[in-house]
Amino acid sequence: MASGLDDVKEALKVISLGQAKLLSAVETVSQRVSELEKEEDRRRPASTGIDGIKRTETPLAGGFTPSPSAVLPAEAGTQSPPPSSASPDVKSTFSSRVVLTTYPKQLGIRPLSLDWGAADPLQRGPVTVSRAPSTIGRRNAIGAHGGSYSIYYALAVASRELDADHKPDYTNTEPAVNIGPFPQWGDKKKIVAMDPWGHLVPWLFKDTIEKENGMSSMAHMKLPELEESVKSGRLVPDGKVCLNASGELSVTKFAVEPVWYLPGVAERFGIDEGTLRRSLFEHTGGMYPELITRSDIKVFLPPIGGLTVYCFGDPARMSDSTKRLALRIHDECNGSDVFCSDICTCRPYLMFGIEEAVKEAQKGGSGVVIYFRKEGRALGEVTKYLVYNARKRGEDRASDYFKRTENIAGVKDMRFQALMPDILHWLGITKIDRMLSMSNMKHDAIVGQGIPIHERVELPSSWIPADSRVEIDAKINAGYFTTGHRMTEEELKAVQGRNWEE
Ligand SMILES: [Zn+2]
Predict the structure, then answer these.
(1) Exactly one of 337, 400, 413, 422 is catalytic; which is it?
(2) Mind spelling out the 3-state secondary structure of 2-53?
(3) Is-catalytic flag, 433?
(4) Neighbours of ion ligand 1 (CB under 5 A)
(5) Per the confidence metrics, is the pTM higher than 0.90?
(6) From ligand 1's centre to the CA of 346, what distance in Å?
(7) For residue range 45-101, what is the model confidence (pLDDT) as tens digits?
(8) Catalytic annotation present for 415
(9) Tell me: the pLDDT tens digits for 433-486?
């Protein structure tokens, strides 16, 4: 027995010695590759930017023609692509091997430094997510640019409508107004769901091939409700914010795509980063394996909608604490916002919010409406229609309003306002004088981020369509802010919408 154990011990010793030799060999090869890369960097003209990865021609496989690809260990996490029916004379934009995932200690993996929350943008570094041959080993983020639109980008490349090597021409595309930088931009606890430098990427980080993920612009907008506001005398044209008798408005807009710093996002939800990464990986059908394999990469560009800020009046006033600020945080409801469905109060509240924002701007303050792409309480329009059908085929009573959603979706609401206040920090907002919202979730998230709300303003009942009383009364009963009457359960049963036949 003893000699058998000794044999096993001896065998283990041999294995571990062999492993040590192998590791040292890998280390030597690694060093040599890195030396060669440096040599190549020196030889390459400066204009090629951050491209630091050795390229090689790869043989034909699965119908793919040779194209440059990064030198990564071929076996780990790579796969031959599915057969392509493309004719052999058409050059493919893809390399012959697909890199499914990368590992922190893999050869050629040298992520660009990304110091999230650093106040100096150059120290912070660019969010680098492209899987182009020149950056795949230098990526410091998971996912793809453009939120949900990344899928259309993929379609455009696949159908050869778009050259994956296309270089944007940024002439005259600079932001319309200057915002910040504010101290909040250098606080990794305050901004976790967007890139504070995202709108300046092409100018700050000239050497990268990365895209911007935020931008500002200016526009005029015309809404029939605002023409009514002028007619009724509630809104008086001033030629600057409200331009004329037709209620035309002048507005500065900021579009933002989501960029998540995963440790910060996990902290906002009170969960650990591992649980967040695992859930994101599992419930996107395994779309982003690096959520699991690259714990060294902390930034994720999720495939979800972003937000737009509509600012009335001088944008500089938003961050000026001596000026008053009126704010509406609005979550998308396409049926009402765009197509004027009367089952909810979304468009009326949006219009009321815009009117009040304009008034505040006319009085020398600032009015801001922020529009988040979170359709149907972030459950999506399909789920929303299931709920509508169930409500209208039933009795559609305010007392059952939340129950119907919960029965179908399993939750009342998935908008999770925890990440919403980031945009306020980015705009430099430090207090809100008039909050044009009745939602407790929005209120608590903002106040929880240290931004006080001085006054909450509910939607006046003159703006509420008859069929949407079910929604608004149910919300008020559930604790939404009101200065008016909060109905009892009994009274709620009496609030009924139109039925299926009407
Ligand atoms: Zn709605």
Answers:
(1) 413
(2) HHHHHHHHHHHHHHHHHHHHHHHHHHHHHHHHHHHHHHHHHHCCHHHCCCCC
(3) no
(4) 333, 336, 344, 346
(5) no
(6) 4
(7) 544 444 444 433 333 333 333 333 334 444 456 666 666 655 555 567 677 788 888
(8) yes
(9) 999 999 999 999 999 999 999 999 999 999 998 889 888 998 998 889 998 888
